[in-house]
Design brief:
CATH architecture of the largest domain: Orthogonal Bundle
CATH class of the largest domain: Mainly Alpha
CATH superfamily of the largest domain: Cytochrome c-like domain
Number of domains: 2
Number of strands: 6
Radius of gyration: 24 Å
Amino acid sequence: MPTLFPVKKIGFLLAFSLLASCASENDYTEIIIGTEDQELKTTLVSLSGDLSYYILPNSTDYAKIPADPKNPITEEKVLLGQLLFHETGIGLEGNSETNKETYSCASCHHSAAGFQSGLQQGIGDGGMGYGIAGEARIIDPLYTEAMIDVQPIKSPTVLNSAYQKLMLWNGQFGATSRNIGTEVNWTEGTPKAVNHLGFEGVETQAIAGLSVHRMALDKTFCDTNDYSNLFDQAFPNVANTERYSLIYAGLAIAAYERTLLSTDTNFQNWLKGDFDAMTSDEKKGALLFFGKAKCYQCHNGPALNSEEFYALGMNDLEGPNVHGIIDDVTKKGRGGFTNKPSDNYKFKVPQLYNLTDVQFYGHGGSFTSVKEIIAYKNIATKENNEVSSSDLSGKFAPLHLSDEEVDLIATFIETSLSDKNLNRYVPTSLPTGLCFPNADPTSREDMNCD
């Protein structure tokens, strides 16, 4: 006997009222939801205990958003962090005078690309141009390979990062969770030393990233550009001598990043009771995702991610458009951080929302579509010859899915998990008045920004 659910739509309510007017007071009428809806609901409840397990909180419901106890989320911090995240004016440590004040955190993590880079390899200082979604950013010809700030690995999204205790593909940022016991690897003089501040991954990455990506600010900058009052409101209990610094700028950015949640998607709306939010094919794809394909074993919870690291034999960054040297430490993933051979070639399980905002997937961007990466996992044949079979995860095994089933899972991920209004998290302007996410002449022309 299928479960019965009250229907809230006006048409059904009218029909219910007409039926009720002819019924006795002991009669009870409800609408039966579709078979696919019932099956999906049953499946999700069996895995998690309740549908609410998968629901992302509202971005302003700070009490429900996972936060670092040492950095509670407040409205004042989020506002400051939103501005600083997009602020090209703090790009003050560029390797060329002409490139200063032209890049920001959002250069490699912007809304049009699902808060990741629109390129296979993100470019901060040393880049020029934007295009439509960051896809047209190129190396400034005045920069040599040694001068540019490029990512040696695909830029991970900060979307739904509230559900990550550790950050980066190798999980090197964060002083809690699975990084307890890795203190010997928090090398002084490197960004990993920021772990000694004791924050979780989102905060640690935000603080470390500001210095790594050549940004700076101080009291003079804040006074000149109307940021002082914003810092005062966000951190009223911090001494003036410490408040206007990259550490507190990073904490504000982290608070903002934790509110970047893909709440307006077909799947999220279905979870909240709108059973028409997903099409039949999307529901079939979800049933496969949480059933036969066992995607849920690695991708679960509100962000459909996990804190686990797996070796799946994917290629590293490669190709004619890749800049810089991809060193062995980066290639070894988690093992490059922990120095444990058993961790070699393992990379963190990513979240799955808004993947189609870019066309590069995997830590090296070696896949160009969601379907392609699902097909790779389905066949389970490694593409990276540097990864031995003994290094591969036991979960990397053939799934025996048909082509139609692969298509349906891709439909669920591409369509059901896509939030089309991430621009709601972007400020309308900056205190400095500069363009963003980039402010170089080519980007300004691309974005029509004067």
